[in-house]
């Protein structure tokens, strides 16, 4: 009986650990994949050539991953969580290796002020008590991420859900 109690206690700790180190759960406004033509560089946008290339790669990532379902602990197009998604995109499209977990990604690269965020920067949110969420900045407040409610999608930091949850940004590109 003692072994059973220890096993049960261990499983409970594992579940708590997974929730503490994974992505936030959110109910946000969804943006359909067909809206991708409104996201990105406009003809009058003052972005540099490097930022334009980063945006192009992020749009390609969205074309490839858009709509992939959210799966806590998942790391493939059949199911992915936010930190695995950012890790996969940065690795696959930019050949940049970052840690797997959101809390570790929060230490990667260098800190960026909110008014200096550029395409490709990691954007972090505190969605609940101790729960973190991460996405990749695009432009005009848009960010690419794996959301709990809608899978891989584009949202905007100005949306009601995200506006008060911003935590910080890190530059890894």
Range of helix content: 25-40%
What are the secondary-structure elements, in order, as H or E?
HHEEHHEEEEEHE
Distance between the first and last residues' Cα: 52 Å
Which overall shape is indicated by the principal axes computed on the Cα atoms?
A: globular
- Calculate the mean pLDDT score and round it: 82
CATH structural class = Alpha Beta
Give an overview in words:
The chain has 173 residues and is an alpha+beta fold. The protein has a single domain, classed as endopeptidase fold (from Nostoc punctiforme) (Alpha-Beta Complex), CATH 3.90.1720.10. It has 5 helices and 8 strands. It has helices spanning 2-21, 49-65, 82-94, 102-105, 160-163, and strands spanning 75-76, 79-80, 110-112, 122-128, 131-137, 142-147, 151-156, 166-171. A 6-stranded antiparallel sheet has the order 3-8-4-5-6-7. Strands 1-2 form a two-stranded antiparallel ribbon. Strand 1 (75-76) and strand 2 form a beta hairpin. Residues 16-21 and 24-45 have low confidence and may be disordered.
